[in-house]
Amino acid sequence: MTEQDLHQLRRSKWRLDGKPIRTIEEARAFVETAGFCLMYPVRPPMPIPTFIGAFVGSDDRLPTWQHAYSDPRAQAATDLMVRLLRERSAYEANVFDENNAFLVAASAFPYFYALVGERNPKLAPRPGPRSPYSQLACDAFELINRDGPISKQKLQEALGGSISLAVLDKALGELLAKLRITRVDYKAGEGSFWDVLYRWSPDAVREGVGLSVQQALSALLSKYLDSMVAAEQVELETFFGNFVARSRVKEAVNALLAARELSFVHVGGRSMLHITPAKEPAVAAVRPRRAAR
Fold it and tell me: What is the pLDDT of residue 282?
């Protein structure tokens, strides 16, 4: 495989080849195929598909989240993304930036939850020196748990009008990072609507809680490589190092290699990992019958 081959295969999988997604069916299929994607590209670039790229059908002059407000394509793409969240075809996480949604397909979400979610999701978060939650985040969780789904506007009013939206967004980001809450809708004038995740998607959370980290990581590594076509091991360690220790990523890769589920392929002089192609069944040669004398 050449570098050009890899580039073209990724562009096709990531819908950057002039075939944009426009319908909810196309959006659903794209997210399921990708497994996970960012809403907007990041700087420096990260090897992962973006929803805005698939919506535009190209990676030329795509807006980052900082400039999305002035790009009409971003609003249309966001409307389509919210429809996916509303029907539970995709889930949102706060991994790389609180303003740049990380979208996870419904089929991959239980595995993702097993890596980053709380093992006891109904237990209310508590603030503290070693806690990832601020007091405001804990107060917000209590309100969402009691009154959700609730709009950000009503949440701000209930917590006290003096709280700025920026501060509230930070608190919601703390809860979203550990998958305690999820955005379930958006309405103009009221903003995003939030609910506790274990109530919004109890089956997905229950499945995620029951999975081991190793099971989940193995499944997500395979999904990531399917989307990437091929990737260097350091790319896998860097990407999944955002969720778990890099040592665990190495262990999972070695286990998949030992099981021959992954193998190496040479791409333009680089040794990269890919999903081991399925072996084609051998077809026995059929000898021609001799003509009867």
Answer: 53
Residue 71 banded pLDDT, cuts 50, 70, 90: very high
pLDDT (tens digit per residue) in 157-211: 999 878 998 899 999 999 998 999 998 888 878 888 999 999 999 999 999 999 9
Cα–Cα distances (Å) from 170 to 66, 85, 136, 163, in that order, read: 16, 20, 9, 11
* Selection from 99, 133, 93 nearest residue 113 by Cα: 93
Looking only at the bridges linking them, the beta strands covering 191-196 and 36-38 are unpaired
Q: Is the pLDDT of residue 286 over 80?
A: no
**Phi, psi (deg, nearest 5) at residue 91:** -130, 155
Mean pLDDT in residue range 125-138: 93
pTM across the whole model: 0.89
Bridge partners of residue 231, in order along the sequence: 273
What would the DSSP string read from start to end of the chain?
--HHHHHHHHHHHTT-SS----SHHHHHHHHHHHSEEESS--SS--SS-BHHHHHHTS-TTPPPGGGGGG-HHHHHHHHHHHHHHHTTSEEEEEEEETTEEEEEETTTHHHHHHHHS-SSTTSPP---TT-S--HHHHHHHHHHHHH-SEEHHHHHHHH-TTS-HHHHHHHHHHHHHTTSEEEEEEETTTEEEEEEHHHHSHHHHHHHHTS-HHHHHHHHHHHHHHHHSSB-HHHHHHHHTTTS-HHHHHHHHHHHHHTTSEEEEEETTEEEEEEPPPPPPP-PPPPPPPPP-
